[in-house]
Design a protein that fits this description.
30 strands, 8-stranded parallel β-sheet, globular, 542 residues, 6-stranded antiparallel β-sheet, Trefoil (Acidic Fibroblast Growth Factor, subunit A), alpha/beta, binds 2-acetamido-2-deoxy-beta-D-glucopyranose, Immunoglobulin-like, single chain, TIM Barrel
Length: 542
Amino acid sequence: MGAPSTVWDTAKMALMLPLLPVQASLGNTGLLPTPPMGFNNWARFQCDLNESLFTETAQSMLSRGLRDAGYNRLNLDDCWMHHDRAADGSLQWNTTKFPQGIPWLASYATKYGFHLGIYEDAGNQTCGGFPGSYGYERLDVETFASWGIDYIKVDGCNVWAEDDRSLRDEYRARYGKWNEVLSELPRPLIFSESAPAYFADNASDWAAVMDWVPRNGELARHSTDVLVYVGEGSAWDSIMNNYDYNTLLVRYQRPGYFNDPDFLIPDHPGLTQTEKESHFRLWASFSAPLIISACIPDLSDEDIAYLSNEALIAVDQDPLAQQAALVSRDGTFDVLSRSLANGDRLLTVLNRGPVAASTTIPLERLGLSQVGCEYLARDLITGEDVTLQNAIEIRLDSHATSVHRFELPEGCSVVTPTGMVFHTPSGLCLTASGTTVAFEPCGGSDSQIWNVLTETSGKLTISALSDKSLCLCAHESRVLLAGCRSVGTNWEHSITGHLRNTDGGCLTKVSGKVTIGDCVVDNAAQILGLPSGVHLTDGLTG
Ligand SMILES: *[C@@H]1O[C@H](CO)[C@@H](O)[C@H](O)[C@H]1NC(C)=O
Ligand SMILES: *[C@@H]1O[C@H](CO)[C@@H](O)[C@H](O)[C@H]1NC(C)=O
Ligand SMILES: *[C@@H]1O[C@H](CO)[C@@H](O)[C@H](O)[C@H]1NC(C)=O
Ligand SMILES: *[C@@H]1O[C@H](CO)[C@@H](O)[C@H](O)[C@H]1NC(C)=O
């Protein structure tokens, strides 16, 4: 196992980020250092939840080993409430559904080694039409804490802009209020924010919302809900939709804050065994929340086995909390990579195509380009080890995913963040051609895979694998490729998604062309995705 590379330094990055006064989340990474794991009723049972569903689920999670594998949260979703508040304004549970009450259920959960989580809404009503928390945030948070709950998901249905505010400013104000009241508790609850999901169809608004989300809470639902059990349509397409959204948000994730692409749905009747297992492997590669929404007692032993894969859970729960990012995308294979806390490198490959296929991935694409190094790659599904020097060949069935963990030997621990640099709203890839660059459809060639080096100055230099002697360079309003020591080759990347030239403005997409423009926080033409592990500056935010 090699020491973590000095090329990137996530710990330092996390310290540099907070810009606004920080309360619950980034100032308190101890609240949720690694992503949550557990059960939620929604995708499988929707409003048909009750006490016995939760107690039977808990017993099944215990006897089938899921709790010991790390799934230690039981989260209630919408529809747990009585349809009216009590005379003193406080929330009450539906006593038909929860005859012994939510505080009883919380102590039951604790007794068996679980935590209980709950659901509310930032608007006037929940999505299911029950009382929302708008105007009652403090009372509701105090109520939940007094019931023994330590995790809350706050949805964003039925929020209307007040006064002259824009809707996105309204969400900011509402979720800011939640952060404030949660932060005032002696023990803040873990705060899951659904706000970004309400803006996912507009790249500018989405970026503006994502700008504050990691500072307010510990995780965020950023895109539409995964298909529910009784829903119509393709469950695999729904998983791929949320997967794709998640790939746009790599730079936000860090210990204490997690992007949430929604539940695992292992008993969805529309999924093949291969697809369910892919779902789990992709979410673990992301270090995403692993919240199962299924009838746990009815899951097959095969399902329990893949959900309990220790090596993949260790990746999910890795303390570095890096999210796997796209290295390449060629229409069939998505290749993703990230680092782990002990310096190891992860390779995740998904075959999105309709038939089985093979691909060969040079290790240079994983950011491992030291000469004369031999790496031990462990297949985290089969447990088999293979020693590699230059490349790895992967063969996958349609919709299957492989995950390999590369051990970096002594003297071979240098990792350079490497992968796609892409315009996230369009998905187009920054593409090198001679000394010019353009945004083009991603095809997986070396001209679309970039080394992003952090110089000792903290500035980035960016070169395509097709010709590493040339670096991305800004010259007035033009962007081109020039010798890596030329003026104009130093860049900064920030949480807004900007790539700012230290001698000028921000890299901007104008149709397929790459130009330099004034940096504007929610300018959708300037929102870029970079490999994971790229050094972030606080340059523009705030
Ligand atoms: C509780 O909910 C489950 C799942 O929806 C259902 O099968 C069961 O009949 C319910 N039990 C009671 C007592 O309502
Ligand atoms: C409680 O839930 C039951 C369904 O389980 C429903 O029939 C009843 O109307 C609910 N009561 C209240 C007060 O919301
Ligand atoms: C929403 O709730 C607020 C605060 O209780 C209230 O002032 C407002 O009229 C409500 N809006 C609607 C549309 O019900
Ligand atoms: C996205 O939202 C921004 C700002 O709220 C607005 O100016 C823009 O027109 C919206 N874009 C689309 C495509 O709706």
